[in-house]
Structures are given as C-alpha cells and as structure tokens.
Amino acid sequence: ALKAGCISVAGVVIDGVDLSKVKADELQAVQAYAKTAKVAIWMSATAEGDKLEDSAPKSLKDFFAIVLHLSASAGGVKMLVVKLRDEKNVSTTLKLDSKTLLIVEK
C-alpha cells in the first residue's frame, strides 16, 4: 500500500512479537518480503533472560542476524549484543539514554 502511494520504505519494525508462538514458515515469509522489497526488518520481543537461548526458540535463531538485549541500569539502558551474525555474546559497554535511546557511554 505504501509503495502504491509512492512512499518508499527502508525498514519495517514489528513490535511485541511473541517468538514462542511464531513458526519458521512465518519468518520465512517475512524474510522473503524483506528481500523482495529490499528493506530491513527489526523485531522486538520480551525475554526473561539475556542469553541467546532466552531470546527465541532454537529453530528460529538462524532467521536473526543480530540479537540485542536491553535492560534498565543505573542512569540509563544497558545494551548487550547477544548475537552478531555468527558471533555470540559480543562484549560491549554501550549505555543508552533511557528516554532517547541515544548512546551516552561507550
């Protein structure tokens, strides 16, 4: 609909995904759309823990190139890079502003 209205889209955000209810074929459809439309897809989901195993079922992990875990910390939001392509639990010391989510500390 956006494309028909001459509105270009560079990315799509899907907020509040319950990954315990998502099936692989549904993510395959999203992946196919992203490739065809040449857009980046960002999804947000709530997870209990900060490990990759806590973020999504094992059968879905290959669909995600990057997995970030955000958690409240003193004076801001701590960002943990749980997965970055083939790397797991990448070390980072980034801290984000709790209102703007801009980087306040490296």
The low-confidence runs, each spanning 5 or more residues with pLDDT under 50, are none
Order of helices and strands: EHEHEEEEE
Please give the number of β-strands: 7
Distance between the termini: 40 Å
Tell me the structural class.
alpha+beta
Which radius of gyration do the C-alpha atoms yield? 15 Å
Overall geometric form: globular
Number of helices: 2
Q: Kindly state the percentage of residues in helix.
A: 10-25%
Structure description:
By secondary structure, this protein is α+β, with helices and mostly antiparallel strands. Helices cover 17% and strands 32% of the residues. The chain contains 2 helices and 7 strands. The longest helix is centred in the N-terminal third of the chain and has 14 residues. The chain is globular and about 45 Å long.
Outline of this structure?
This protein has two helices and seven strands. With 106 residues, the chain is of the alpha+beta class.
Record the SSE blueprint.
Blueprint: E1 11-14, H1 24-37, E2 40-43, H2 52-55, E3 66-73, E4 76-84, E5 87-90, E6 95-96, E7 103-105
Parallel strand pairs: 1-2
Antiparallel strand pairs: 3-4, 4-5, 4-6, 6-7
